[in-house]
Amino acid sequence: MSALASTTVSLFRSARQSAHARRLVACLLGLIVLAVMTGPSGSNTAPVSGFTGSLFHPRVLVFIAIGLGLWGLITAQHRWGEALKRTNDNLMTLPRRMMPDRRVRLVLYAALLAVAILVPLHVNAFWQDVLVDQIGIYVLLAIGLNVVVGYAGLLDLGYIAFYAIGAYSTAFWTGALPVHPPMVLNAFWAIPFAIGTAMLSGVLIGAPTLRLRGDYLAIVTLGFGEIIQIVATNLQGVTGGSQGVIGIPHPDVNLLGIHYSWLIDPLPYYYLLLVFVVAALIAYSFLEHSRVGRAWTAIREDEVAAQSAGINVLKYKIMAFAIGASTSGFAGMLEASKISFIEPGDFTVQLSILILVLVIFGGMGSLLGAVVGAAFLQWFPWYLKEHPMFGFQDQDLYIYLGAILVLTMIFRPEGLIPSRRRKREFGLAEHGLGTADAMSGTTDPVP
Amino acid sequence: MTTAPEAAPTTVAGDIIVAIKDLSLSFGGVRALVDVTLKQARGELLSVIGPNGAGKTCLFNCLTGVYHPQQGSITFYGPHDKATQIVGRKPHLVNRLGIARTFQTSRLFNALTAFENVKIGVESRMHTGPVGAMLRLPRTRREERESDARSDELLEFVGLRARGNELASALPYGDRRRLEIARALGTNPQLLLLDEPAAGTNPAEKSDLGTLIRRVKNELGVTVLLIEHDMGLVMSLAERIIVLNFGRVIAFGTPAEVQHDPAVIEAYLGAPTDDDTYVPVEPDANGDD
Amino acid sequence: MCFTQNFWSFFIGGIANGFLYALIALGYTLVYGVLQLINFAHSEVFMSGGFAGYFVVNAVIGQSSPHGLASVGLIVLGTAAGAVGGAVVAYLLERVAYRPLRRRKAPRLAFLISAIGASYFLYNLAGKEFGRNGYSLPFLYPFQTGVTVFGTGIQTYWVVIAIAAMIMLVLLDRIVAATRLGRGIRAVAQDAETASLMGVNIDRVIAQTFILGGILGGAAGFLFGLSSGVVYSMGFTPALKAFTAAVLGGIGNIRGAVLGGLVLGVAENMGVICAPTEWRDVVAFGILVAVLIIRPTGILGERLGRSA
Q1: How close, in Å, is residue A152 to chain B by CA atoms?
Q2: Which domains does chain A have, with CATH numbers?
Q3: Does residue A280 sit at the B interface (CB-CB below 8 Å)?
């Protein structure tokens, strides 16, 4: 024990002097943290058993070995610098460079779409449900949050609140809540109401806060996400309280001679969702390359310059916020009518953070990134559930997600598949040009 | 039409575009502007000079709605002599009235191309909303075409047509200044405020810039209010000059009048700085026209 | 109807809670002063302090039921342990989630995201390691109610947190006003660039500021745990309220944070007289939104060394 301690101390001391040693310490500490993350859990009766079980166990050697290996790689990269670094850079920019030209990109999108259409036909019922409830819905949510975080550079930490509002307003308009609507609609016709309500609440929460510094928006939305849950739990007479709401009808459509009802089978929901996801992708990509998208970029980079170029900064921020909120509300409507049951516990603040991770990991401001990031990060835990490995435990998911956020910000802030504009902005920010976010509040009326 | 000049240091002939009256601005205890009064005629090239910290940029910030002065008024006269009060208006609304500006240290959108920078200015006068943009409605596409054409024109005008696809951050200094002017012109201003456009440029770029400013005035008919430290440029361009010191107007008149004003000479010599751009005016600098 | 005979009890309880909010709020305000950023992971600093205090006190107390000086000693010990725990976590946070980004001059959005990631990491790691059920602290003092004022029993707990908080607040005020560290913090808050040109080691000052905030937040975690127990999720709500307190008083303003904490503590308790307890958090959030709309610079205005 004491030998270990003295080694650590001397390592720390030498770390002050040498970059190599500093990297070694960072690698080792990182891997030891990983060993604890993946190790056994503690419990209330044995609060240190998690630490002892993961650190005083032969498995820790594996992690130390990996740590040393990692350090070796990094050192090698620094020593034989250029060649290795170039390979690394090439690898890092591979996704972008692979589709420089429009035709290649279209082929890729078509292939992705084909996969998205065909995959659900070849998986079992359990995975079909996962594809809708866990992957499809979250891809849609990530695309929506991408508008807020990626395009407008605003941090919304209560994104799931709008999902809840969409779900509860669907329950209201279909007559499933204790309070009754003026007229009972079928879930399909509740869509405009769900979207409208979510958008309106987005504007109401956003308008006062978006005038202020960006981090205030983050904390107000965080609080709002928590409050929505408290309200849903305590307003028993309106929301059904903590027991939740049952009996939200499935959607069906009877329009222009087409009649279709969605029932329990997940596949029709999946394809409905796919249609909306593709529509949202096309619409938001148009948006990004339009007057509105350019205005967002301008605001992200320099609010003062944007204002004096005639851009109404507050209006565009509220717009982004409302578009995100309505996408979230729409997803809430779909999920509520598929499961036909909602409860306040479905809308925890953690879920907002989860969606943020999906967007950040995929690449802020990149639609393809949001889709791929969301699909991968939502699929992987479920895969691990079926094929346990690395000692992954389901309830530890958020430890990993938190770590992903920090690591992405440190090593690759532009995300897995970066948006070109965003990547440039992060690069320029490093050289002291531009800000790459909209964090500084619209008006600082001086004095 | 306009009210007779009361306390204005000099009367202005012709039709007024902007009238500033008794403008005062202070930060805490620091008085940045004290009772500034001035008028600019439509089509006139007026220059504001003064030592560092004299309140020139503060004046611009008041004129564009960035600062809210505690006292005084700024009246802007639109094309049909429609008078509008600037004080208290938000910056983007001031811009919409027809006042555009550039910044002392250029503030371009660095991650965008030169073309996109100009286009953002041009587009601020368009009407495409989020729904139109998402659906690519016919009007959206028409506006895209119009703003593309207009942006190209403006790039051509400032001589950057060939560099349109380069990132703003990659442009050399002089080009950045011209790009900023193009972006400001994109918003279709009647009054253009230029904040030290020549700062940091080399002599060749400086003379190009002088030509450009003159063309903005003559070819586009835009009124220009110019802050500049380079006396050569000021003397060759300005029709009238206003001199600020410690937030007050200390002199006002034609270049020749200002040059020989004892108060101006004292302001520059009496407040020596380590920057040699403040040496008094070269005697024969206005022999350009 | 709102003003019952319990008025004074709610009022004094509110002041005591307010002192806790003030301690946490100072962590936000100090870090905000030097970085102009809200430290989203401060809630986990608070939680770590709670656990550190709990484990130390629990190990020392054994089966005894302390009274008199032993009670005082244990409270001091637990508070100190909480402070150390909070300081360590706050320092690590700065090292891992903030400093690398600062080196890269990352945009502010990146800092916030990184801090949120760190917060969720710590939060869930604590849940994994210490179990997801709460721990209640052993009784450190024999009487739950001490003196009676205005016909109301003053809880010993209120007295404990008020005294502990006041001592720390006075110490902090002295540190910021009169030590080299305090001068560094004020210098960086005023103008980081100039401060670095004047030879202030910015990285060190920032780390020390995190540690200072961590000490106060961690101690508050233990004091909070005295009555409410400690659990991995204990940080979220008090931290959100403390942030409200910091904004209420004027973020970046040290005395403002204390004032904001006290005002919020009392206001929240007054709200509870009128509305059911489960709406307590909603009341606090309502205050936050109202402050942001009406006076975003807070009661005393934003400043930390910044001249008006």
Answers
A1: 13
A2: 2-79 (no CATH), 124-430 (1.10.3470)
A3: no
CA distance C97 to chain A (A): 6
The reply to whether residue A424 touches residue B167, judged by beta carbons under 8 angstroms, is: yes
pLDDT tens, residue by residue, C22-74: 999 999 999 988 888 889 999 999 999 999 999 999 888 877 777 778 888 88
Average model confidence (pLDDT) for chain A? 84
Residues in chain B: 289
With an 8 Å Cβ cutoff, are A424 and B128 in contact? no
Is there a contact between B169 and A443 if contact means CB atoms under 8 Å apart?
no
Type of residue found at B112:
L
Question: DSSP characters for A153-207?
Answer: ----S-HHHHHHHHHHHHHHHTT-SSS--SS---TTTTHHHHHHHHHHHHHHHHH
Q: How do residues B141-165 score in pLDDT, each as one tens digit?
A: 999 999 999 999 999 999 999 999 9
Token look-up 């110490």 returns: C171
- A432 CB near a chain B CB, below 8 Å? no
Chains near A (3 or more Cβ pairs under 8 Å): B, C
Lowest average pLDDT, out of A167-176, A368-377, C145-154, C280-289, goes to C145-154
* Lowest-confidence region among B12-26, C191-205, C267-281: C267-281
Q: What ipTM does the predicted assembly reach?
A: 0.88
- For A310-339, how does the pLDDT look when each residue is reduced to its tens digit (9 = 90+)? 999 999 999 999 999 999 999 999 999 888
List all residues of chain A from 351 to 370 with a beta carbon under 8 Å from chain C: 353, 356-357, 360
Q: Does A438 touch chain B (CB under 8 A)?
A: no
Kindly tell me the burial class for residue A427, based on how many C-beta atoms sit within 10 Å of its own C-beta (0-12, 13-18, 19 or more): middle
Do you know the residue count of chain C? 308
Rounded CA separation A241/A234 (Å): 6
Cβ–Cβ gap A406/C118 under 8 Å: yes
Distance CA A332, CA A353 (A): 16
Q: Is residue A437 pLDDT above 80, yes or no?
A: no
Please give the CATH superfamily to which domain B1-98+189-289 belongs. P-loop containing nucleotide triphosphate hydrolases (3.40.50.300)
Q: Decide: C6 and C199 in contact? Cβ < 8 Å.
A: no
Nearest Cα to B90, choosing from A445, C134, C71, C174? A445
DSSP string, A281-314: HHHHHHHHTSHHHHHHHHHHH-HHHHHHTT--HH
Bridge-based pairing of strands B83-85 and B71-77 is: antiparallel
CB contacts, 8 Å: A161 with chain C: none
Q: For strand B223-227 and strand B191-195, is the pairing parallel, antiparallel, or unpaired?
A: parallel
Residues with Cβ within 8 Å of residue B261, at least 6 apart in sequence: B243, B250, B251, B253
For chain C, list the contacting chains (3+ Cβ pairs, <8 Å).
A
| Residues 209-228 in B contacting A (C-alpha not used; CB under 8 Å) | none
Note whether A445 contacts B: Cβ–Cβ < 8 A: yes
Q: Is the pLDDT of residue B10 over 70?
A: no
Q: How confident is the model at residue A277 (pLDDT cuts 50, 70, 90)?
A: very high
Contact A405 C117 (CB under 8 A): yes
Q: Say how many C-beta atoms besides its own lie within 10 A of residue B5's C-beta.
A: 16
Taking an 8 Å cut-off on Cβ atoms, the answer to whether A353 and C116 are in contact is yes
Q: Please tell me the distance in Å from C34's CA to the nearest CA on chain A.
A: 15
SS3 label, residue A150: helix
CB–CB of B198/B233 below 8 Å? yes
Chain C closest CA to A203's CA: distance in Å?
Answer: 14
Supply B46's token pair.
Answer: 């007026």
Domain borders along chain C are: 20-235
- Compute the mean pLDDT over every residue in chain C, rounded to the nearest whole number: 86
Task: Determine, for residues A291 and B123 on separate chains, whether the beta-carbon distance falls below 8 Å.
Answer: yes
